[in-house]
Amino acid sequence: MAEFPIPVSVLTGFLGAGKTTLLNRLLKDPALTDTAVIINEFGDVAIDHLLVEQSSDGVIQLSDGCLCCTVRGELVDTLADLVDRLQTGKIARLKRVVIETTGLADPAPVLQSIMGHPALVQAFRLDGVIAMVDAVNGEATLDAHVEAVKQVAVADRIVVAKTDLVTEAQALERLRARLRKINPGAPLLDVSAAGVAGLLDCGLYDPKTKTADVRKWLGAEAEHAAHHHAGHGHDHDQRVRSFTLVHDRPVPYASIEMFLDLLRSAHGEKLLRMKGIIELAESPERPLVVHGVQKLLHPPARLPAWPDEVRGTRLVLITLDMPEDYVRRLFAAFTNQPQVDTADRAAMENNPLAIAGR
Questions:
Q1: Domain CobW C-terminal spans what residues (predicted)?
Q2: 210-233 confidence digits (pLDDT tens)
Q3: Domain 6-199, CATH
Q4: Bridge partners of residue 249, in order along the sequence
């Protein structure tokens, strides 16, 4: 049987980054027993499917195309079918699902498929995103393809592969420094040290202890209330920003709801990922957890108690071409900290367009 919600891990990375090699190694670990693997294919021959050393019962191969477009509906159907097979006894146990995306995929629609379906959100929870980067071609790929930058930006874990093929140590360190700038909150791992324990179970909830690890989930940058620009000299990198919104007092639910609605309606397509924990004025002892991808907001969850001593609101935003100043002024208005010549919360509630920047 399965204990719902079942954790789902998304393995992404550009073409040739080594996703299938890593997946083959992970599948040999006893910790991944009773794991369903969904492999996306691109092209006429399902080469990746042939390389994955797992029985056909455990591997679900999607049809031609990429998860971000033509087979998105099929992904939903596949996940729903897994639940049906569990409930009817066709599958005895299911502890985890791993989705390997095609190298050309923007991972955001994959995350939306998991988070946005009203039935699936009851059966599955997003555990995390693992992005793989090829150490040999990584810099050139990031330069040429904004999809590769987005894959790194939304990741909870970043794995660098083929480091043994890099002859120049300085080149490898430049790549690692660049990845840290794009996504300062995600641990950076070498593929040789990347195991099940370090890659999976990186979500908010610890499935073993049933407790929450907010710091691990939000990322290191939330602890310092920092904001990061992704780099200098790289066109795609400069478009990505990671920043944290912090407020140290309780916030009315209506205010945070309107803030999130306005943010998603104004710049939802530019919001690659958002994670946060909020202290509500109505019930400050039970924090609200929010998680969003672009315009889609996962149904908010309430924790039974605060997982650490830090109260208030911490929202981590990973964005692409989003005006940070607009977001900060909008957040300040709804937390009753309006800046000079900026509307306060009451004015915003009466006129949502009071702050320019849409």
A1: 240-335
A2: 567 777 778 755 554 455 555 555
A3: 3.40.50.300
A4: none
